User: Fold Endoribonuclease L-PSP from Pseudomonas chlororaphis.
Amino acid sequence: MTQRDVVFPPGRQALYQRNRYSPAIRANGFLFVSGQVGSNADGAPEPDLEAQVRLAFTNLNAILAAAGSSFDEVIDVTVFIVDPETRFETIWKVVPEFWGQAPHPTLTAVGVTWLYGFDFEIKVIAKLPESTAG
Assistant:
């Protein structure tokens, strides 16, 4: 097996090692980012939904930046929402703060029943700049 080119955001490596997964992996010019939630530094959920969504994007952006990328390079997004019928509008009013201008990335939204105490999770695939393509 090829050695995985893992990207860790500053200050959170221990959290990922404790939970036994990589936050992101560079491969073939792309960055595959694990689902990001609105977790505080200790991994605990942010209780306020809007703040949780903002924190999920902040955590995502830290990984993208650590890879030399940004949300502008994101081409595919998957979001997971617990009880989307009651939470979607609250979540989606926060999204434009981070989403950028059109054309937007592709999007798949999935309603789920459980996210380990969280209400929102976002995972992405981004194109890496040539200098960081790994």
About this structure: The domain at 5-132 is CATH 3.30.1330.40 (60s Ribosomal Protein L30; Chain: A;).
